[in-house]
Amino acid sequence: MVTIREVAKEAGVSVATASRALNGMSNVTEPTRAKIEAVAARLNYVPHSGARSLTKRQTDTIGVILPDLFGEFFSELIRGIDKAVHAEGKTLLLGTMHGRQEETAQAIRAMRGRVDGLIIMPPETVAKTLDTEPLVAFPIVMLNAPPKGSTLPFVSIDSRAGAEMITRHLIERGARKIVHISGPANNRDAIERAAAFRDIMKAELGIADPVILPGDFCEGSGEKAIVALLTSGIAFDAVFAANDVMAVEAMMSLRDAGYAIGTEVLVAGFDDIPLARYVSPGLTTVRSEITKLGEAAARTLLALLKGELDEESHGTVIVPRLAVRGSTAGRDEAA
Amino acid sequence: MVTIREVAKEAGVSVATASRALNGMSNVTEPTRAKIEAVAARLNYVPHSGARSLTKRQTDTIGVILPDLFGEFFSELIRGIDKAVHAEGKTLLLGTMHGRQEETAQAIRAMRGRVDGLIIMPPETVAKTLDTEPLVAFPIVMLNAPPKGSTLPFVSIDSRAGAEMITRHLIERGARKIVHISGPANNRDAIERAAAFRDIMKAELGIADPVILPGDFCEGSGEKAIVALLTSGIAFDAVFAANDVMAVEAMMSLRDAGYAIGTEVLVAGFDDIPLARYVSPGLTTVRSEITKLGEAAARTLLALLKGELDEESHGTVIVPRLAVRGSTAGRDEAA
DNA sequence: TTGAAAGCGCTACCAT
DNA sequence: ATGGTAGCGCTTTCAA
């Protein structure tokens, strides 16, 4: 591998001058620069980013630590982050902890010296831990985990607002006996969505203790919940699943069980993954705009790095909107 | 940030000893090691991977350059790569060229000094260029682009075999007037799939010049193709799209136009993205096992880095299998 | 077993 | 405008 030193020697200048020329600094004579560039091209010189990072104390790399890489949610998220990061000419270092929480700390440590800042989406409520960990010496933006008592900047989706909207929507469309399929018990979003569901059921219908079936956000749990529901004999006229994956599965299971989706039984999800519009009927859901979420996180971090993070963008809460489709056409139309 | 020097000083040893102790080398007295580790923990020392990479001339990072990040294909691919890479304790550096071919070379250069090796999925037939480029001084594995006249190791899916299978399958299920929606004209996979389709139509049905509609693998083009098809008045009883995204769209469009999918008109795709099994009827497609593809690429690169790449694994061609679902239930059953 | 010191490839400061 | 040189934080000979 040819280094800058060889280029300098070959061009008959010092490494300092070579460095300046190659980095487009102004204080280099035009002929000198031309010669250096020619030599660099001839020798096929490619700067060693690692070495450069070491001296500049800046890596131009953004690290992302995700709980997992499964499904469309993460792919959309990464796309959003990449979009913003790439726009600033920086690169993306991807780390996951494969669901294992113990790996989080290690994953973060491994980032030291490789990235300028980190976007972390903790699997659960690791936020507090992170804030305590003194090792967190570099800029961090939390994703979807509004840190309680933490001072870390964050970007998240307003799960509560979304769940409220959708529950109201189901009621408006004629549902009265709504069943909720929740996410993991230790997941903040899942908890908020379930709580919001309860609140609206109480406020709008006076139902203090609505049916909530356990789920885990993953494939398999939507179907399981429906099987349990049907077996239980509980009466229902709508299902609100805490995310789209479960909602789609629930929809399929209900359809297979002979229910007419959208009229006899309304179904709604949360996230608006691409799949939601392809199933039939289309799935009514809460549009999180995942890509936007990723972009916002990246932009917050980028601003933080530049020291331009103003107070108001310190914490960004994205308020989702409804995406109404066929799965909640309405009970009235069933008649 | 605390460096190894501070740890050494605080522990009353030389940096050399500190380094050895922290890296678990054997030639350090137990008490010395204990003390150093205690100090490191107390000072919350985290090694600087960048600096370490520089001296060791090894980054423990694998770079991946993708044409884009859109859709499930790439998310599954990344997941596969990450799986293999993570298993070896290495990290993943992600680069994309956002469809712009000019960015490829630059993206590769930017990797110098950051990664030990590269997995590249060129948008088109950049393989040759890459092989020529002398800058490619580090280990590279090509993804899905069997380099013509290139000596780079590669992993790819046998598009031809897959397309042959599925065309035969459609014919078996009673289709005679099959229309193909192709991918981008400059995409190798797209070209091979179309060619295989032609060959089988010729061989099995004696149709030398089957209808092939242009597409681009992306959302929008499946629908467009169907609109064109319906407008043209061309007779058809099956549609084989070069990838699932277009196939699903085509399916929806045809259904909206009043066709019974799976009986009146058969539809098939290519890739087997998760979505394929959720639409209804399920989409018959070619199972590429994208995750496996990513894993294989990563493993090839890892072996290459270890100097363990034997001749036969130099080029891996994954032969896909059919995933038969409702969208090709069969024309016979229509009766 | 431990320490001193020479780099890894580059940038940036201080001279000239 | 150009050159010499001191690091960036770490690993790794070479000596002791």
Task: Summarize it.
The structure is a homodimer of 335-residue chains. The first copy, chain A, has 335 residues and is α/β, with parallel strands linked by helices.
Main features:
homodimer; 335 residues; 434 Repressor (Amino-terminal Domain); Rossmann fold; 3 domains; 12 helices; DNA-binding
First-residue to last-residue Cα separation of chain A: 76 Å
Largest interface, C-beta within 8 A:
A-B, 47 and 47 residues
Query: Ranges of chain A with pLDDT <50 over ≥5 residues?
Result: none
- Percentage of residues assigned to helices of chain A: 40-55%
How do the SSEs of chain A run, as a string of H and E?
A: HHHHEHEHEHEEHEHEHEHEEHEE
Which topology of the largest domain in chain A does CATH recognise? Answer: Rossmann fold
Structural class of chain A: alpha/beta
Number of strands of chain A: 12
Under CATH at level 1, the class of the largest domain in chain A stands as Alpha Beta
The quaternary organization reads as: homodimer
Count of domains of chain A:
3
What's the CATH H-level superfamily name of the largest domain in chain A?
Answer: Response regulator
How does the overall form of chain A come out from the CA principal axes?
A: elongated
Query: Count the helices of chain A. How many?
Result: 12
Task: Give the second-level CATH assignment, the architecture of the largest domain in chain A.
Answer: 3-Layer(aba) Sandwich
